[in-house]
Amino acid sequence: MNKVIVGAQWGDEGKAKITDILAADADLIIRYQGGCNAGHTVVADGKTFKFHLIPSGILYKGKTCFIGAGTVILPESFESEVGGLIAQGIDVSGLKVSPLASVTMPYHVAADDPDGKIGSTRKGIGPTYTDKYARKGVKIQDLFEPDAPELYQKYAKIFEPYVCWDWQDMLRAHKNDRILFEGAQGVMLDVDYGTYPFVTSSNPIGGGAAVGSGYGPAMIDEVIGVAKAYVTRVGEGPFITELDDETGENIRQIGAEFGTTTGRPRRCGWFDAVTMRYAVLVGGLTQLAITKIDVFDSFDEIKLCTAYKDVRTGEICTSYPTNVNSHKYYEPVYETHAGWKRNIMGIRKYEDLPPNAKKYLARLEELLEIPIAIVSVGPQRDQTIFRGK
Ligand code: IMP
Fold first, then answer.
1. Which residues' Cβ are closer than 6 Å to ligand 1?
2. Number of helices (H) and strands (E), helices first, in the chain?
3. Which residue ranges form the domains of the chain, and what is each CATH number?
């Protein structure tokens, strides 16, 4: 059973934790898009690990972790991330990098979102992809050309131990193994389907796995969308259920909503089922993992956006308006759910969740028309409920 993990919102949904758990049952873990703009935090055996590009599956011994052709790599960031893992005693011998991945050069970083219009992470992601599609990018394999300039040679040394020159054989050898495709960012940051232009420059959607990994779509059995029980966003761009009030601040503080890569406070708001229904469709999601529902433990009530109201016409819509210029005309239509007012972080079985928490989750399933397979009730590996287990 091969699975893709996809962020179902604007990134930071808690994918790393879900990936970390599912990686235990995978032989090959592939990162298929994005670069070190991603920030993944994994808490394992009481230690906190921060990842940007390297698949968190590296924490398990004996797994192959492949950084695919669809990714972009900032050499200095890669070097310090690998160095940090080695310093923490992690065995990185399973780490492999595609020679077809793109290299972020210093001029890409310098050219990234100079006026802050997009609120990018300033890791050179957009300019690296721009050059790739303009067919003037630098790929990892180019660093090893015999007549490569000095900087290329310096970078080649960083990548040399990890470049997977025989990646075709490696992928063939793993064809019947268990494969986990690890997406970064989220569906709403997808360059084709997200809140353009306030997006990243790659395809975090499930389909991106088939482009960026080297395997085709027939290799994918499940696409697991990871979503918080509320919504967060870093950077600019529309966010219809954003809360600019005490409730938003409460969510931020209880949920520790500050960026892993940039430290920026994240914008917070209620769960938006309109956007999520859209993410289910275009992200190709087949199941959901709902994270951080424990953040609501102390809440009296929880709101859930089920539709948008167009203030120009009064019309109610449940289809996502894809032109972000129109978003200022939409107001969220909320239904209110009673909170459960107890600590659920120690619960391990779905049946043991408080009735109000189960009602909220059941309503999400009804609105989104896909099953919730996983519920996360805390940052630790074991604070996870697998439905039906
Ligand atoms: P870029 O990917 O650095 O170009 O940034 C483009 C947009 O995507 C900005 O709004 C970033 O804040 C957002 N973004 C990029 N990576 C992540 C991530 O891993 N989590 C959340 N937002 C991200």
1. 10-12, 37-39, 118-121, 123, 125-126, 184-185, 189, 198, 200-201, 234-235
2. 10, 19
3. 3-226 (3.40.440.10), 227-386 (3.90.170.10)
